[in-house]
Amino acid sequence: MTGYDDHLLRTPSKSRISRHPPAVWILVPLAAILFQVYVPRFVVALSYLELPLLITVYFSLMSRRPVTGAVAGAVIGLLQDSLSHQPVGLFGISKTLVGYFSASVSQRFDVENNLLRFLMSFLLFLFHQVLFWVLTRSLLGEALELQAPQTVVYAFLNAVVAVPFFLILDRLRTDTR
Fold first, then answer.
1. What is the pTM of this model?
2. What pLDDT was estimated at residue 21?
3. Neighbours of 171 (CB within 10 A)
């Protein structure tokens, strides 16, 4: 392995459990969901931004517990479902799986690495969109079209936003060994 590979892999002595105050767990996802629902109505250029997904990825990565990541994803997804015009459950299922997978990855890799955060945000956005498309087609029977080039561009833009956004959220946490 190279030195860079060794840096990406976590070592048990360096693993930290990140904790956030309860107000952060409540207010940040709520603000992200309200942003997702209301801001694109006024600023159409920001409609690509999926802040609830980024919050799910961040909290799941930092908790390093798949069950916590899945529960965070389910709660954020169901809250987003309740305020959107989508049937309840589609965002809940998608974000539950995203939370579980991102927390599972965080058990193996150093999630403080910005390159890994970028890649995880990019890949999990793609996963979320494809899963949402599959669920819409299979559960609702709607002929929703998956626009692959646009989805890849949106995934890239969300990943670009995720890195500085995660650094801001890092300032709200307390770490313990």
1. 0.87
2. 84
3. 6
